[in-house]
Automatic annotation (TrEMBL):
Residue ranges occupied by any Thiamine-binding protein domain in the UniProt entry: 11-98
This protein's name: Uncharacterized conserved protein YqgV, UPF0045/DUF77 family
Pfam family, one: Thiamine_BP
Annotated GO CC locations: cytosol
Family: Belongs to the UPF0045 family.
Length: 99
């Protein structure tokens, strides 16, 4: 049975291009995440999303494709996930006290 709990997925996309600005390419990935409607936090090194794993992995794949479609020659993608067996994982539980 698949875990249907809320998880956190951190994604760092590092685009490689000989001609295009890497920040502009990363912006394409962030745009996909923002348009998805999932709760997320953009940081200088990665974007952390909150939702069901299957949904977040689809968004991550869409973000990857957006960077390639925008002209990246290749992308390096790093994922980090926090998944609990019987409990949801919320971003605010970890960082809310700092806001």
């Amino acid at each position: 049975m698949k875990n249907k709990h809320i998880i956190n997925l951190g994604i760092q996309i590092v685009p490689k291009s000989k001609n295009l600005d890497s920040y502009a390419l990363v912006d394409k990935a962030i745009e996909v995440i923002q348009n998805s409607g999932v709760n997320h936090v953009v940081t200088p090194f990665e974007t952390v999303m909150e939702g069901e794993q299957e949904e977040l992995m689809k968004i991550a794949m869409d973000a990857q494709e957006a960077v390639l479609a925008a002209g990246a020659d290749e992308v390096l993608i790093y994922y980090r996930m926090q998944i609990r067996k019987n409990k949801d994982v919320y971003i605010v539980d970890k960082t809310g006290k700092y806001q």
